[in-house]
Amino acid sequence: MKNKPLFGLLILIVLGTIAVTGFKDSETAVDGYTIGSEAADINLMNVDKTMVSYDNYPDALGFIVIFTCNTCPYAVASEDRINALHAEFKDKGYPVIAINPNDPDVQPDDTFELMQQKAEDKGFTFPYLYDESKTVYAEYGAKKTPHVYLLQKEEDKKIVKYIGAIDDNVRNGDAVKERFLANAVYELLDGKEVTLKETKAIGCSVKVK
After folding, report:
1. Which of 75, 84, 95, 118 is the most exposed place for a label (fewest CB within 10 A)?
2. Is 148:201 a contact under the CB 8 Å cutoff?
3. What pTM does this model have?
4. Within a domain: 16
């Protein structure tokens, strides 16, 4: 075949184009925040149809931001823990703000209407926000549901202090031995540096096109 070198070159070009412009892989395509990053504000719709930003919490010392969803078994297994974290820390200055990054065109059970139903059924006491534009999860670099980012206010900035899992047993809340997130919050409340700054978030991949 006389045009074999040209054919090979075309294949390489096509593969390169797919690598650059193909569907997002939430495991590899997003970098996002690291420890010490300044987190941008958010402005997302809550399940009660109000818009929520960090500025709604002028007295907060920081925020427990958890990317989660309706459908992932790991997220579902964490729902009671997330409710409990909000109850434990909201009055201490670290309220929970949950954000659903999933695209309902990819995961049909993550529509806004079903988010509303989930919040009602589970008695969520924290905001459960819809990342409709899929830009917030990407900016943070969330790759899993659930995926935690602990922010601390420093002057007019919100600085990332911990990233990863809620605790050491995402599957079974009754078997937890180490509360990674809670330990980090208590260290901040005590004016200390967070000892364990990062853990591996275990859950389902974020579902986007």
Report:
1. 84
2. yes
3. 0.85
4. no
